[in-house]
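Fold it.
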Amino acid sequence: MTSLHVDDLFTAAFKPATLYLIYGEDKVGKTTLVLSAASKLMERGERVLWVDCGARLYLPRVKQLVKPDKLDMMYVAQPRSFRQQLESITNIHDHLPKDTRLVVCDDFTHLHRLELTGNVSKDLPLYEALTFQAALLKDLAASGNISVVVVGLVHEIPVLNVSAPVAGRIVSYWADCVVRLVRRNGVREAVEEKPAAGSRRFTLTDEGVQLLER
């Protein structure tokens, strides 16, 4: 089986200096997939920083996937405004703990979407701020020689009959790897769109995720 970047989400063998974008519809398993991989890193004594932008980190699920004696290997920031999100990402970029292996920014565009007005001139600074945050995360991966995972939702483009990441051009531009999660008949599929093409099928379990045979 050819090795793809998408495999890193199941093995936790994240590539250093790499920014991953994981996107998909709501409740398709994005947070669980990334949290399951993060738990493997914590079991190896590697620290994870998690920016929970959309309040999606469910504590009982965290306790299900992360061993109690490894919970202290996970730092969680929970910004409640787009400004606080910028502050959290800036602080991580400027003061990254030396033992950090992975930074996760979950529901990256949630707080940004809440502040959009629909007025192009008024919203332009918000898009500029989102671009700056994406660039910061890319620089964080490179300068810290760590892995960064950005998790996002999709929006529909009816005229093209396709789905794309929210603020997709901004986030996809900075990402080294783009993976879309889809769900078909109870089975999830992680589809790598960049830099290669391929997919892996999986299901969600109490223990996290189970990779299926192709």
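The chain has one domain: 5-211.
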